[in-house]
């Protein structure tokens, strides 16, 4: 299958490598391919430059966001939450009619909010949108001809592509969206990734809860200790 | 142990009955005991009047919020989120120095928010406070001499008092708060309820995630079918 991954960060790389390993034709999208390849320093998250990573993963093509989307049947959005709507809107034509999986958390960093939590960030991030809207719904409104599916967001992407690394894979992945065929395509992809418990939460409004779970995910992560990987399982 | 339960709704009744069954001295608090006992019709949630319920549970005393708190060592807050801060503030003196477990979700019902979700409510509720504050933190600020612990909130209260009814009890309960002794007291109570996996999420700011999880809880509940009981387990 021809799959585009938009974004070159750590999460995007997890999907790119896994998809290539599964035999898919992977097209990676970035804002400015030349600028991405010219970088030689780690980014602010400490992720090594994409060019050197790409050198170790032959057969993967780097394009603009629009060109990558144009070449794919299914698109994974790894653009950060703050820039996603604008960047995806600029590629609306190439995304029309396609399934777009969104896993972004719409974090905003507000240094004016006093916060006592001893986070690695110092200040606890907040979300925008939150509660009465979600990033996934914003993307769907901006791209009415694209089939948006919210998924992957409740986990680290390294775990999303390797669910069996935790509890033998005995935990739950969630999907939400308006289009049943698109959700099935994402469910099939997740099954290929190794997931066995995939729960369809229904319409895209469920993305509010999935994105707002980021606070709970952070709290559990801090409680277990920084760097501990975990999942949650819905016990019926 | 002398335990007060503030509130007479379905969630409060689950705790009252369980605590009495465990041999604790239970004091129930309500805004106006005479008015509570005078009611003969089910409330808007369809819960039968408290007087008839109480008649089937001998040995349980009904007081004002302040009088119930005054008689207890540990207090469980079952007052709905919208009224909790005001009602608890009026009993600040009686709550001073005590552990207060809060399990409320600060739902607001806003009929002006257009919402496509086919919920039993018709319109999806939203939260206030949310994201940059929590009800538990508001209560703690209003009652600085009380040791507030957020707990129970990620589950139906019927499940909180009977965890083994789901998956043999193999799911996770969360606690958060500023005072280690208070969290230990709540953990001991949860252990008596039958919980074996109790995760301390740290300071009270973690209540934000616990309260915001309400959206995810609702979405999972709708996906599994109305009335299905479930829990979530943190898989390490």
UniProtKB/TrEMBL annotation, chains A, B:
Pfam family, one: F420_oxidored
Keyword list, A-Z: Oxidoreductase
Domain (Pyrroline-5-carboxylate reductase catalytic N-terminal) ranges: 2-105
GO CC, any one term: plasma membrane
Keyword Oxidoreductase tagged: yes
Keyword Signal (UniProt): no
GO biological process: copper ion import
Gene Ontology molecular function terms on file: cupric reductase (NADH) activity; ferric-chelate reductase (NADPH) activity
Domain of life: Bacteria
Name of the protein in its database record: NADP oxidoreductase
Species annotation: Streptomyces klenkii
